[in-house]
Design goal:
The protein has 261 residues and is an alpha/beta fold. The chain folds into two domains: 193 residues, 2-enoyl-CoA Hydratase, Chain A, domain 1 (Alpha-Beta Complex); 47 residues. The chain is 42% helix and 16% strand. It has ten helices and ten strands. The strands form two sheets. A six-stranded mixed β-sheet has the order 1-2-3-5-7-10, sandwiched between helices. A four-stranded mixed β-sheet has the order 4-6-8-9. Helix 1 packs parallel to helix 2, helix 3 packs parallel to helix 4 and helix 8 runs antiparallel to helix 9. The protein is globular and about 60 Å long. The relative contact order is 0.11.
Length: 261
Protein backbone atom coordinates (compact mmCIF):
# COMPACT_ATOMS: atom_id res chain seq x y z
CA UNK A 1 0.00 0.00 0.00
CA UNK A 2 1.21 3.47 -0.84
CA UNK A 3 2.15 5.72 2.07
CA UNK A 4 -0.15 8.74 2.25
CA UNK A 5 -0.58 11.56 4.78
CA UNK A 6 -3.81 10.30 6.28
CA UNK A 7 -5.13 12.20 9.27
CA UNK A 8 -8.56 10.69 9.88
CA UNK A 9 -8.10 7.02 8.96
CA UNK A 10 -5.51 4.40 9.89
CA UNK A 11 -4.37 1.52 7.68
CA UNK A 12 -2.81 -1.80 8.63
CA UNK A 13 -2.02 -4.62 6.19
CA UNK A 14 -1.31 -8.15 7.42
CA UNK A 15 -1.59 -11.54 5.70
CA UNK A 16 -3.54 -10.11 2.79
CA UNK A 17 -6.08 -8.31 5.01
CA UNK A 18 -6.17 -4.51 4.93
CA UNK A 19 -7.83 -2.98 7.98
CA UNK A 20 -9.10 0.56 7.51
CA UNK A 21 -9.94 2.23 10.81
CA UNK A 22 -12.04 5.37 10.88
CA UNK A 23 -10.07 7.39 13.39
CA UNK A 24 -11.91 10.32 14.93
CA UNK A 25 -12.90 8.73 18.22
CA UNK A 26 -13.57 12.09 19.85
CA UNK A 27 -16.37 12.56 17.27
CA UNK A 28 -17.45 8.90 17.26
CA UNK A 29 -15.70 8.66 13.86
CA UNK A 30 -18.23 10.93 12.17
CA UNK A 31 -17.43 11.40 8.49
CA UNK A 32 -16.72 14.73 6.86
CA UNK A 33 -15.26 15.54 3.44
CA UNK A 34 -11.69 14.89 4.58
CA UNK A 35 -12.36 11.39 5.89
CA UNK A 36 -14.39 10.51 2.80
CA UNK A 37 -11.56 11.72 0.58
CA UNK A 38 -9.00 9.68 2.51
CA UNK A 39 -11.20 6.59 2.21
CA UNK A 40 -11.38 7.08 -1.56
CA UNK A 41 -7.58 7.12 -1.77
CA UNK A 42 -7.31 4.05 0.46
CA UNK A 43 -9.80 2.04 -1.60
CA UNK A 44 -8.21 3.00 -4.91
CA UNK A 45 -4.79 1.98 -3.60
CA UNK A 46 -6.21 -1.28 -2.22
CA UNK A 47 -7.74 -2.13 -5.59
CA UNK A 48 -4.37 -1.82 -7.30
CA UNK A 49 -2.34 -3.62 -4.63
CA UNK A 50 -2.03 -7.38 -5.28
CA UNK A 51 -1.05 -7.91 -1.64
CA UNK A 52 -4.51 -6.82 -0.53
CA UNK A 53 -6.96 -9.73 -0.63
CA UNK A 54 -9.66 -8.47 1.77
CA UNK A 55 -10.58 -5.05 3.17
CA UNK A 56 -11.99 -4.63 6.69
CA UNK A 57 -13.65 -1.43 7.90
CA UNK A 58 -13.92 -0.57 11.57
CA UNK A 59 -13.92 2.38 13.91
CA UNK A 60 -11.51 3.61 16.56
CA UNK A 61 -12.69 3.63 20.14
CA UNK A 62 -16.22 2.60 21.05
CA UNK A 63 -17.99 3.59 17.81
CA UNK A 64 -17.98 2.38 14.23
CA UNK A 65 -19.24 5.65 12.74
CA UNK A 66 -21.89 8.03 14.05
CA UNK A 67 -22.72 9.19 10.51
CA UNK A 68 -22.00 12.40 8.70
CA UNK A 69 -20.31 15.22 10.59
CA UNK A 70 -22.96 17.91 10.29
CA UNK A 71 -20.45 20.58 11.27
CA UNK A 72 -18.33 19.78 8.22
CA UNK A 73 -21.05 19.17 5.64
CA UNK A 74 -20.80 22.65 4.14
CA UNK A 75 -17.02 22.90 4.42
CA UNK A 76 -14.07 21.62 2.44
CA UNK A 77 -11.55 19.72 4.48
CA UNK A 78 -10.00 17.48 1.86
CA UNK A 79 -6.77 17.38 3.83
CA UNK A 80 -3.67 19.49 3.35
CA UNK A 81 -1.84 17.15 0.96
CA UNK A 82 -4.46 15.03 -0.80
CA UNK A 83 -6.21 16.39 -3.86
CA UNK A 84 -10.00 15.85 -3.79
CA UNK A 85 -11.11 12.59 -5.38
CA UNK A 86 -14.84 12.81 -4.82
CA UNK A 87 -17.60 12.83 -2.23
CA UNK A 88 -19.69 10.34 -0.26
CA UNK A 89 -21.65 9.28 -3.34
CA UNK A 90 -18.35 8.35 -5.02
CA UNK A 91 -17.37 6.43 -1.88
CA UNK A 92 -20.49 4.26 -1.96
CA UNK A 93 -19.91 3.51 -5.64
CA UNK A 94 -16.27 2.53 -5.00
CA UNK A 95 -17.48 -0.61 -3.25
CA UNK A 96 -18.96 -1.85 -6.54
CA UNK A 97 -15.67 -1.46 -8.43
CA UNK A 98 -13.17 -2.59 -5.77
CA UNK A 99 -13.60 -6.25 -6.79
CA UNK A 100 -12.17 -7.42 -3.49
CA UNK A 101 -14.33 -8.62 -0.59
CA UNK A 102 -15.12 -6.09 2.11
CA UNK A 103 -16.04 -6.73 5.72
CA UNK A 104 -17.58 -4.29 8.19
CA UNK A 105 -16.40 -4.90 11.75
CA UNK A 106 -19.14 -3.04 13.61
CA UNK A 107 -17.70 -2.40 17.05
CA UNK A 108 -20.24 0.18 18.22
CA UNK A 109 -22.80 2.69 17.00
CA UNK A 110 -23.25 2.83 13.19
CA UNK A 111 -25.69 5.50 12.10
CA UNK A 112 -26.59 7.33 8.88
CA UNK A 113 -23.61 7.50 6.55
CA UNK A 114 -21.72 5.06 8.76
CA UNK A 115 -24.51 2.56 8.25
CA UNK A 116 -24.14 3.15 4.52
CA UNK A 117 -20.62 1.76 4.72
CA UNK A 118 -21.90 -1.27 6.64
CA UNK A 119 -24.55 -1.92 3.98
CA UNK A 120 -22.08 -1.36 1.12
CA UNK A 121 -19.70 -4.01 2.47
CA UNK A 122 -20.03 -7.60 1.31
CA UNK A 123 -20.03 -8.90 4.89
CA UNK A 124 -20.87 -7.32 8.23
CA UNK A 125 -20.23 -8.71 11.69
CA UNK A 126 -21.35 -6.69 14.70
CA UNK A 127 -20.72 -6.79 18.41
CA UNK A 128 -23.88 -7.57 20.35
CA UNK A 129 -23.64 -4.16 22.03
CA UNK A 130 -23.63 -2.29 18.70
CA UNK A 131 -26.54 -0.08 17.69
CA UNK A 132 -27.50 0.77 14.11
CA UNK A 133 -30.06 3.00 12.47
CA UNK A 134 -31.08 5.91 10.26
CA UNK A 135 -32.05 8.75 12.61
CA UNK A 136 -32.22 11.38 9.86
CA UNK A 137 -36.03 11.54 9.91
CA UNK A 138 -35.89 12.90 13.46
CA UNK A 139 -33.86 15.85 12.21
CA UNK A 140 -36.14 16.64 9.31
CA UNK A 141 -33.83 14.83 6.90
CA UNK A 142 -33.87 11.47 5.14
CA UNK A 143 -31.17 8.85 4.39
CA UNK A 144 -31.28 9.60 0.68
CA UNK A 145 -27.97 8.27 -0.67
CA UNK A 146 -27.61 5.29 1.63
CA UNK A 147 -31.15 4.20 0.76
CA UNK A 148 -29.70 2.84 -2.50
CA UNK A 149 -27.37 0.43 -0.72
CA UNK A 150 -29.76 -0.32 2.14
CA UNK A 151 -32.52 -1.47 -0.20
CA UNK A 152 -30.10 -3.93 -1.77
CA UNK A 153 -29.53 -5.47 1.66
CA UNK A 154 -32.72 -5.08 3.71
CA UNK A 155 -36.20 -6.02 2.53
CA UNK A 156 -38.92 -3.40 2.00
CA UNK A 157 -40.97 -3.42 5.20
CA UNK A 158 -38.18 -3.44 7.81
CA UNK A 159 -36.23 -0.88 5.79
CA UNK A 160 -39.15 1.55 5.58
CA UNK A 161 -39.80 1.06 9.28
CA UNK A 162 -36.17 1.86 10.05
CA UNK A 163 -36.05 4.94 7.81
CA UNK A 164 -39.47 6.39 8.65
CA UNK A 165 -39.32 5.85 12.42
CA UNK A 166 -35.62 6.52 12.92
CA UNK A 167 -35.36 4.07 15.80
CA UNK A 168 -32.11 2.36 16.71
CA UNK A 169 -31.71 -1.35 15.98
CA UNK A 170 -29.83 -3.71 18.25
CA UNK A 171 -27.26 -5.93 16.58
CA UNK A 172 -29.65 -8.86 16.96
CA UNK A 173 -32.40 -6.88 15.20
CA UNK A 174 -29.97 -5.89 12.45
CA UNK A 175 -29.11 -9.54 11.89
CA UNK A 176 -32.80 -10.46 11.80
CA UNK A 177 -33.46 -8.07 8.91
CA UNK A 178 -30.16 -9.11 7.24
CA UNK A 179 -28.55 -5.72 7.58
CA UNK A 180 -25.58 -7.62 9.00
CA UNK A 181 -24.56 -11.26 8.68
CA UNK A 182 -24.65 -11.89 12.41
CA UNK A 183 -24.24 -10.42 15.87
CA UNK A 184 -21.50 -11.91 18.02
CA UNK A 185 -20.43 -11.45 21.65
CA UNK A 186 -18.28 -8.33 22.01
CA UNK A 187 -15.32 -10.33 23.27
CA UNK A 188 -15.29 -12.62 20.20
CA UNK A 189 -15.76 -9.96 17.51
CA UNK A 190 -12.11 -9.91 16.51
CA UNK A 191 -11.86 -13.68 16.43
CA UNK A 192 -14.96 -13.92 14.24
CA UNK A 193 -13.66 -11.27 11.84
CA UNK A 194 -10.24 -12.92 11.71
CA UNK A 195 -11.79 -16.31 10.92
CA UNK A 196 -13.88 -14.84 8.12
CA UNK A 197 -11.06 -12.85 6.55
CA UNK A 198 -8.72 -15.85 6.73
CA UNK A 199 -11.19 -17.89 4.67
CA UNK A 200 -11.70 -15.06 2.17
CA UNK A 201 -8.00 -14.34 1.73
CA UNK A 202 -7.34 -18.03 1.03
CA UNK A 203 -9.58 -18.00 -2.05
CA UNK A 204 -8.44 -17.37 -5.62
CA UNK A 205 -7.88 -13.61 -6.13
CA UNK A 206 -8.85 -14.03 -9.77
CA UNK A 207 -12.12 -15.79 -9.02
CA UNK A 208 -12.87 -13.23 -6.32
CA UNK A 209 -12.16 -10.30 -8.62
CA UNK A 210 -14.12 -11.63 -11.58
CA UNK A 211 -16.94 -12.96 -9.44
CA UNK A 212 -17.50 -9.69 -7.59
CA UNK A 213 -17.27 -7.70 -10.82
CA UNK A 214 -19.91 -9.96 -12.37
CA UNK A 215 -22.08 -9.75 -9.25
CA UNK A 216 -22.27 -5.96 -9.39
CA UNK A 217 -22.62 -5.82 -13.18
CA UNK A 218 -25.61 -8.17 -13.33
CA UNK A 219 -27.32 -6.91 -10.17
CA UNK A 220 -29.68 -4.56 -12.02
CA UNK A 221 -30.00 -6.52 -15.26
CA UNK A 222 -33.10 -8.34 -16.38
CA UNK A 223 -32.81 -12.11 -16.12
CA UNK A 224 -32.94 -12.43 -19.92
CA UNK A 225 -29.88 -10.20 -20.18
CA UNK A 226 -28.05 -11.42 -17.10
CA UNK A 227 -27.91 -15.15 -17.89
CA UNK A 228 -26.29 -14.96 -21.35
CA UNK A 229 -23.87 -12.27 -20.13
CA UNK A 230 -22.89 -14.42 -17.15
CA UNK A 231 -22.30 -17.30 -19.55
CA UNK A 232 -19.61 -15.21 -21.25
CA UNK A 233 -18.06 -14.57 -17.83
CA UNK A 234 -18.01 -18.30 -17.09
CA UNK A 235 -16.06 -18.91 -20.30
CA UNK A 236 -13.72 -16.05 -19.36
CA UNK A 237 -12.96 -17.39 -15.89
CA UNK A 238 -12.40 -20.89 -17.25
CA UNK A 239 -9.52 -19.45 -19.24
CA UNK A 240 -7.64 -18.10 -16.24
CA UNK A 241 -4.55 -19.61 -14.64
CA UNK A 242 -6.27 -19.83 -11.26
CA UNK A 243 -9.14 -21.85 -12.74
CA UNK A 244 -6.72 -24.29 -14.35
CA UNK A 245 -4.77 -24.53 -11.09
CA UNK A 246 -7.94 -25.04 -9.05
CA UNK A 247 -9.17 -27.87 -11.26
CA UNK A 248 -5.73 -29.49 -11.40
CA UNK A 249 -5.36 -29.29 -7.62
CA UNK A 250 -8.80 -30.84 -7.19
CA UNK A 251 -7.92 -33.87 -9.32
CA UNK A 252 -4.48 -34.17 -7.70
CA UNK A 253 -6.07 -33.90 -4.24
CA UNK A 254 -3.84 -31.06 -3.05
CA UNK A 255 -4.25 -27.46 -1.99
CA UNK A 256 -4.23 -25.00 -4.92
CA UNK A 257 -1.47 -22.44 -5.30
CA UNK A 258 -3.10 -19.27 -6.56
CA UNK A 259 -1.21 -16.82 -8.77
CA UNK A 260 -3.97 -14.24 -9.10
CA UNK A 261 -3.92 -14.60 -12.88
Amino acid sequence: MQERPYEQIELALSDGVLRITLSRPERKNAMGPQMVNELLYALDDAKDDPDVRVVVFTGAGKAFCAGGDLKQMSGGGDGPELEPKGDYADLLLRFTTLHKPTVARVNGVAMGGGLGIVAACDFALAAESAKMGTPEIKRGLFPMMIMAVLMRTVSRRPLLEMMLLGDKLTAADAARVELINRAVPDETLDAEVDALTAKLSAQSPTAMRMGLAAWHHQADQDLADAVPWLQTQLFAILGTEDAREGLTAFFEKRAPQWTGR
